[in-house]
Amino acid sequence: MLASIHDVSPRFESEVDQLVDRLDSHVAKRFAMLVVPNHWGDAPIVPGSPFASRLRAWAAQGIEMFLHGFYHRDLSEHDRPADALRARFMTAGEGEFLGLSLAEARDRINQGRALVEDVIGRRIDGFVAPAWLYGNGAIEALSELKVPLAEDHLKVWSPATGRQLATGPVITWASRTRLRLFSSLAAATVLRRAPLEVLRIGVHPPDVRHPALLKSIDGTFRAASRTRRPGRYSDLLER
Ligand SMILES: [Zn+2]
Q1: Tens digit of each residue's pLDDT (9 = 90 or more) over 200-230
Q2: What's the 71 CA to ligand 1 centre distance in angstroms?
Q3: Which chain residues have CB less than 5 Å from ligand 1, an ion?
Q4: Phi and psi for 23 in degrees, rounded to 5?
Q5: What is the pTM assigned to this prediction?
């Protein structure tokens, strides 16, 4: 099983703390953090700041570090109406890497990677696009930049080698509307027993505000732990 905390940013510091404690109790330090360099353009990770030191300490404890977009929010104009619709309705505008050209995606990944690597003092383990949405520019930039690992909602792959490493949906929770909340609870209950070789579990900062959701997260880790061992994304590269 592979676990991750999404949207790691100074904006969600207290929520991320709570999620770190929670995941720690289930899988120790075998989980990944998806780090946003400057969430929505007004929550920058500043080198030398207390948050930056904490990120470095988490990385030193063996928590995997993925770059997770740059701003997270989609600030681009979409050329294709279908992309615009997909970005707006599926993600509430959070699909930053869906509409970027190759050059834009390359610049943003390079900038974000430089910042995060400076802060944590080592290479990032990979990249995950906000809302798991990748445009062609993003896909090409990741392979050109030889990023070791990436994932979307349905698979994990290595952009550096082109190898597909795992398949199957991520278990994740949504709380933006009651309908999404209830359907994510139902999906978690089914998926945690699915016969997948690799089970991925992703949690988000707003999850901590909903007791029913926290219960489902705990239940999912407990059910998965009965038959699976916690791993790291990088383990997939060695198989
Ligand atoms: Zn995110």
Answers
A1: 999 999 999 999 999 999 999 999 999 999 9
A2: 10
A3: 6-7, 130
A4: -65, -40
A5: 0.92
126 alpha carbon – ligand 1 mean position (Å): 14
Distance 161 CA to ligand 1 centre (A): 25
CA distance 237 to 239: 6
Model confidence pLDDT, tens digit, residues 108-154 = 999 999 999 999 999 999 999 999 999 999 999 999 999 999 999 99
d(CA 77, CA 229): 43
Q: How far apart are CA 148 and CA 131, in angstroms?
A: 19
Q: How far is the CA of 6 from the centre of ligand 1 (A)?
A: 5
Tokens of 15: 């929520």
The alpha carbon of 95 and the centre of ligand 1 are apart by a number of angstroms equal to 9
On the 0-12 / 13-18 / 19+ scale of CB atoms within 10 A, 132 is: buried
Q: How far is the CA of 7 from the centre of ligand 1 (A)?
A: 5
Residue with tokens 């991520």: 170
Which letter does DSSP use for residue 44 in this model? B
Give the CA distances from residue 228 to residues 152, 196, 220, 224, in Å, rounded to whole numbers and listed in that order.
21, 10, 12, 6
